[in-house]
Design goal:
mainly alpha, elongated, 4 helices
Length: 81
């Protein structure tokens, strides 16, 4: 099974430079960014079979990752305006 790369820069390549800037300038963005990547790493470990868990737990993590991505995306768009 191929596991997709869901890093924020991979998901939103058009914001690569702005992501880097906001990680430095905006502590809330930095916190959400770190949470996003922590959740993403946990999902990858489960999908690779390194960790075992219930399907419901994995689905919850994926929803959490999507929610964090949406928040980060909103912040990137707000900063852009």
């Amino acid at each position: 099974m191929s596991i997709e790369n869901h890093s924020l820069v991979n998901e939103l390549p058009e914001f690569k430079e702005r992501i880097h800037e906001l990680k430095i300038e905006n502590m809330h963005f930095h916190k959400l960014f770190n949470e996003y990547h922590d959740v993403d790493k946990e999902i990858h470990r489960i999908e690779k079979g390194i960790e075992n868990t219930a399907d419901d737990y994995l689905e919850g993590l994926k929803k959490q990752r999507l929610n964090l991505k949406d928040q980060l995306f909103d912040m990137l768009n707000a900063e852009k305006a």
